[in-house]
Amino acid sequence: MPSLFRQHPWFRRIFAAVLGLLLGLFLVLLGGWLNQRSLRGLADRLRDAYANHDARAMEQLYCWEGVDAATKARVRLVILQEFELPVAAVVVKPLAPIDRLANPGLRANLPTAATIEVTYDTSDHLSSAFLAGRDGWFHHRLVVMIPVN
């Protein structure tokens, strides 16, 4: 009994094309899931650092590559000031169009991938937005804006 693939070579081509498309779709979905998992993990570590008032853990979430001492000191000061506020929610959001624009005189030290928004449990619902950048395949860190050289 001849196989269906031998009888109809066009069937073999269509089958290979459909299989290739399904495999490609699976890989894209897997990559997106791993990317979101990494971003959610960064947001969870950020929430834990706030909850534990752990400035050291917070500093480790940042990418410090290319950051000068004065900028590091300013970021550390902001970290310490924000620890005074209780956190209500930490949410990962897609980049806003304004986050994609070039800033005059500044650049991100990592390619930006998303925004992590922290909403504080205050009467006026203050919030902070952190840029998250991709540091490797599926690893994210908080971005620091540094001067353009």
Secondary-structure topology with pairs:
Layout: H1 4-7, H2 9-51, H3 55-60, H4 69-82, E1 87-93, E2 106-108, E3 112-120, E4 127-134, E5 140-142, E6 145-147
Antiparallel strand pairs: 1-3, 2-6, 3-4, 4-5
Notes on the structure:
This protein has 149 residues and is an alpha+beta fold. It has one domain: Nuclear Transport Factor 2, Chain: A. Helices cover 45% and strands 22% of the residues. The chain contains 4 helices and 6 strands, in the order H-H-H-H-E-E-E-E-E-E. The strands form 2 sheets. A 4-stranded antiparallel beta sheet has the order 1-3-4-5, with helices on one face. It has a two-stranded antiparallel ribbon with strand order 2-6. It is elongated, with a radius of gyration of 22 Å. The mean pLDDT is 86.
Label this structure with key terms.
149 residues; alpha+beta; Nuclear Transport Factor 2, Chain: A; 4-stranded antiparallel β-sheet; 4 helices; 45% helix
For the record, the CATH class is Alpha Beta
Return the domain count: 1
Main beta-sheet annotation: 4 strands, antiparallel
- Structural class from helices and strands? alpha+beta
Which CATH architecture would you pick?
Roll
Q: Name the overall outline.
A: elongated
Stretches where pLDDT is under 50 for at least 5 consecutive residues are: none
**Count of helices?**
4
Query: Rg, please?
Result: 22 Å
Q: Tell me the CATH topology.
A: Nuclear Transport Factor 2, Chain: A
